[in-house]
Amino acid sequence: MITRIDHIGIACRDLDASIEFYRRAHGFEVVHSEVNEEQGVREAMLRINGTDDGAASYLQLLEPIRDDCAIAKYLEKHGEGVHHIAFGTADVVAATEAATSTGIRALYPAPRRGTSNSSINFLHPKDCHGVLTELVQAADPADAHHS
Ligand code: MC0
Fold first, then answer.
1. Is there a domain that residue 146 lies in?
2. How many whole angstroms separate alpha carbon 90 and alpha carbon 105?
3. pLDDT tens digits, residue range 72-121?
4. Which residue among 46, 57, 73, 87 is least packed, with the fewest CB closer than 10 Å?
5. What residues act catalytically?
6. How much distance in Å is there from the Cα of 62 to the middle of ligand 1?
7. Number of domains composing the chain
8. Are 48 and 60 spatial neighbours (Cβ–Cβ below 8 Å)?
Protein backbone atom coordinates (compact mmCIF):
# COMPACT_ATOMS: atom_id res chain seq x y z
CA MET A 1 0.00 0.00 0.00
CA ILE A 2 1.21 3.48 -0.84
CA THR A 3 0.90 5.92 2.06
CA ARG A 4 2.56 9.16 1.06
CA ILE A 5 4.71 11.09 -1.39
CA ASP A 6 8.28 10.37 -0.32
CA HIS A 7 9.94 12.75 -2.74
CA ILE A 8 9.92 14.49 -6.08
CA GLY A 9 13.14 13.85 -8.00
CA ILE A 10 14.54 16.79 -9.95
CA ALA A 11 17.29 16.51 -12.53
CA CYS A 12 19.83 19.31 -12.29
CA ARG A 13 23.10 20.14 -14.00
CA ASP A 14 24.73 21.80 -10.99
CA LEU A 15 23.65 20.40 -7.61
CA ASP A 16 25.12 23.25 -5.55
CA ALA A 17 23.42 25.89 -7.69
CA SER A 18 20.06 24.09 -7.37
CA ILE A 19 20.47 23.75 -3.59
CA GLU A 20 21.15 27.47 -3.39
CA PHE A 21 18.13 28.22 -5.58
CA TYR A 22 15.74 26.29 -3.30
CA ARG A 23 17.27 27.81 -0.18
CA ARG A 24 16.85 31.34 -1.51
CA ALA A 25 13.46 30.87 -3.18
CA HIS A 26 11.71 28.78 -0.52
CA GLY A 27 13.98 28.40 2.52
CA PHE A 28 14.41 24.62 2.05
CA GLU A 29 17.45 23.09 3.75
CA VAL A 30 19.49 20.00 2.87
CA VAL A 31 19.02 17.26 5.47
CA HIS A 32 20.97 14.54 3.69
CA SER A 33 23.33 14.18 0.75
CA GLU A 34 25.20 11.27 -0.79
CA VAL A 35 26.65 9.78 -3.95
CA ASN A 36 24.81 6.73 -5.32
CA GLU A 37 27.37 5.06 -7.59
CA GLU A 38 24.94 2.47 -8.95
CA GLN A 39 22.47 5.14 -10.05
CA GLY A 40 25.26 7.50 -11.18
CA VAL A 41 24.13 10.48 -9.15
CA ARG A 42 25.21 13.01 -6.55
CA GLU A 43 22.08 13.96 -4.67
CA ALA A 44 20.65 16.10 -1.93
CA MET A 45 17.42 15.63 0.02
CA LEU A 46 15.59 18.83 1.02
CA ARG A 47 12.96 18.29 3.68
CA ILE A 48 9.59 19.83 2.87
CA ASN A 49 7.36 18.53 5.65
CA GLY A 50 6.93 15.89 8.32
CA THR A 51 3.99 13.49 8.26
CA ASP A 52 2.06 11.53 10.84
CA ASP A 53 3.05 8.12 9.46
CA GLY A 54 6.66 8.43 10.59
CA ALA A 55 8.40 9.75 7.49
CA ALA A 56 8.61 13.12 5.81
CA SER A 57 8.45 14.39 2.22
CA TYR A 58 11.41 15.75 0.31
CA LEU A 59 12.68 17.30 -2.86
CA GLN A 60 15.49 15.16 -4.23
CA LEU A 61 18.00 17.06 -6.35
CA LEU A 62 19.97 14.80 -8.70
CA GLU A 63 23.17 15.69 -10.57
CA PRO A 64 24.77 13.07 -12.83
CA ILE A 65 28.29 11.87 -12.05
CA ARG A 66 28.77 10.13 -15.39
CA ASP A 67 27.49 10.45 -18.93
CA ASP A 68 25.74 7.08 -19.27
CA CYS A 69 23.41 7.31 -16.25
CA ALA A 70 19.63 7.90 -16.37
CA ILE A 71 19.88 11.50 -15.14
CA ALA A 72 22.55 12.46 -17.70
CA LYS A 73 20.42 10.97 -20.47
CA TYR A 74 17.35 12.80 -19.19
CA LEU A 75 19.17 16.16 -19.01
CA GLU A 76 20.46 15.74 -22.54
CA LYS A 77 16.97 15.02 -23.88
CA HIS A 78 14.74 17.21 -21.71
CA GLY A 79 16.96 19.66 -19.80
CA GLU A 80 16.56 20.37 -16.11
CA GLY A 81 13.23 19.63 -14.43
CA VAL A 82 11.02 17.11 -12.68
CA HIS A 83 12.42 13.64 -13.34
CA HIS A 84 10.24 11.34 -11.21
CA ILE A 85 7.75 11.09 -8.39
CA ALA A 86 8.42 8.68 -5.53
CA PHE A 87 5.61 7.15 -3.50
CA GLY A 88 6.37 5.85 -0.02
CA THR A 89 5.30 2.42 1.14
CA ALA A 90 6.03 0.12 4.08
CA ASP A 91 6.54 -2.80 1.63
CA VAL A 92 8.17 -2.02 -1.70
CA VAL A 93 7.91 -5.60 -2.98
CA ALA A 94 4.15 -5.73 -2.33
CA ALA A 95 3.59 -2.25 -3.79
CA THR A 96 5.57 -3.22 -6.91
CA GLU A 97 3.62 -6.46 -7.30
CA ALA A 98 0.33 -4.60 -6.90
CA ALA A 99 1.34 -2.35 -9.81
CA THR A 100 2.78 -5.07 -12.05
CA SER A 101 -0.34 -7.19 -11.54
CA THR A 102 -2.19 -4.46 -13.45
CA GLY A 103 0.22 -4.74 -16.40
CA ILE A 104 2.68 -1.97 -15.50
CA ARG A 105 6.36 -2.85 -16.05
CA ALA A 106 8.73 -2.63 -13.08
CA LEU A 107 12.29 -1.67 -14.09
CA TYR A 108 14.03 -4.02 -11.64
CA PRO A 109 13.23 -7.68 -10.85
CA ALA A 110 14.05 -6.97 -7.19
CA PRO A 111 14.44 -3.74 -5.18
CA ARG A 112 17.73 -1.85 -5.33
CA ARG A 113 19.43 0.49 -2.91
CA GLY A 114 18.10 4.05 -2.78
CA THR A 115 18.84 7.11 -0.68
CA SER A 116 19.78 6.40 2.94
CA ASN A 117 19.70 2.64 2.33
CA SER A 118 16.05 2.71 1.32
CA SER A 119 14.74 -0.04 -1.00
CA ILE A 120 13.49 1.20 -4.33
CA ASN A 121 11.97 0.11 -7.61
CA PHE A 122 10.74 2.11 -10.59
CA LEU A 123 7.69 1.77 -12.82
CA HIS A 124 8.18 2.49 -16.51
CA PRO A 125 7.04 5.99 -17.48
CA LYS A 126 5.47 4.66 -20.68
CA ASP A 127 3.10 2.54 -18.54
CA CYS A 128 2.34 5.44 -16.15
CA HIS A 129 1.05 8.12 -18.51
CA GLY A 130 4.49 9.67 -18.94
CA VAL A 131 5.51 9.76 -15.26
CA LEU A 132 8.58 7.83 -14.12
CA THR A 133 7.28 6.46 -10.81
CA GLU A 134 9.49 5.28 -7.98
CA LEU A 135 8.32 3.12 -5.08
CA VAL A 136 10.39 3.56 -1.92
CA GLN A 137 10.54 1.77 1.40
CA ALA A 138 12.59 3.62 4.02
CA ALA A 139 15.29 1.62 5.82
CA ASP A 140 13.94 3.04 9.06
CA PRO A 141 10.78 5.11 8.47
CA ALA A 142 11.24 7.00 11.73
CA ASP A 143 14.62 8.20 10.57
CA ALA A 144 14.18 8.38 6.79
CA HIS A 145 16.92 10.37 5.03
CA HIS A 146 18.42 11.76 8.23
CA SER A 147 21.48 9.53 8.54
C1 MC0 B 1 12.75 8.61 -20.00
N2 MC0 B 1 11.48 8.84 -20.40
C3 MC0 B 1 10.83 9.47 -19.45
C4 MC0 B 1 11.76 9.63 -18.39
N5 MC0 B 1 12.94 9.08 -18.77
N6 MC0 B 1 9.56 9.90 -19.36
C7 MC0 B 1 9.19 10.53 -18.23
N8 MC0 B 1 10.05 10.73 -17.17
C9 MC0 B 1 11.32 10.30 -17.24
N10 MC0 B 1 12.14 10.50 -16.22
C11 MC0 B 1 10.91 8.47 -21.70
C12 MC0 B 1 11.72 9.07 -22.83
O13 MC0 B 1 11.31 10.38 -23.12
C14 MC0 B 1 11.45 8.11 -23.96
O15 MC0 B 1 10.22 8.40 -24.55
C16 MC0 B 1 11.33 6.77 -23.25
O17 MC0 B 1 11.00 7.06 -21.88
C18 MC0 B 1 12.65 6.00 -23.29
O19 MC0 B 1 13.63 6.86 -22.75
P20 MC0 B 1 15.16 6.86 -23.15
O21 MC0 B 1 15.65 8.23 -23.06
O22 MC0 B 1 15.38 6.08 -24.40
O23 MC0 B 1 15.80 6.14 -21.93
P24 MC0 B 1 15.85 4.63 -21.52
O25 MC0 B 1 14.73 3.82 -22.07
O26 MC0 B 1 17.24 4.17 -21.76
O27 MC0 B 1 15.63 4.81 -19.95
C28 MC0 B 1 14.46 5.32 -19.40
C29 MC0 B 1 14.28 4.63 -18.06
C30 MC0 B 1 15.60 4.89 -17.26
C31 MC0 B 1 13.07 5.24 -17.36
C32 MC0 B 1 14.05 3.13 -18.27
O33 MC0 B 1 15.78 6.28 -17.06
C34 MC0 B 1 15.65 4.21 -15.94
O35 MC0 B 1 16.02 3.04 -15.82
N36 MC0 B 1 15.28 4.92 -14.84
C37 MC0 B 1 15.30 4.33 -13.47
C38 MC0 B 1 16.54 4.74 -12.74
C39 MC0 B 1 16.66 6.24 -12.54
O40 MC0 B 1 15.90 7.01 -13.14
N41 MC0 B 1 17.69 6.64 -11.77
C42 MC0 B 1 17.92 8.04 -11.44
C43 MC0 B 1 17.30 8.40 -10.17
P44 MC0 B 1 10.07 8.55 -26.14
O45 MC0 B 1 8.63 8.90 -26.35
O46 MC0 B 1 11.06 9.62 -26.52
O47 MC0 B 1 10.45 7.19 -26.66
S48 MC0 B 1 18.10 7.57 -8.84
C49 MC0 B 1 17.07 7.77 -7.49
O50 MC0 B 1 16.06 8.38 -7.62
C51 MC0 B 1 17.52 7.12 -6.19
C52 MC0 B 1 18.88 7.64 -5.81
C53 MC0 B 1 16.55 7.32 -5.02
O54 MC0 B 1 15.49 7.94 -5.16
O55 MC0 B 1 16.83 6.82 -3.93
1. no
2. 20
3. 999 999 999 999 999 999 999 999 999 999 999 999 999 999 999 999 99
4. 73
5. 7, 43, 60, 84, 134
6. 13
7. 1
8. no
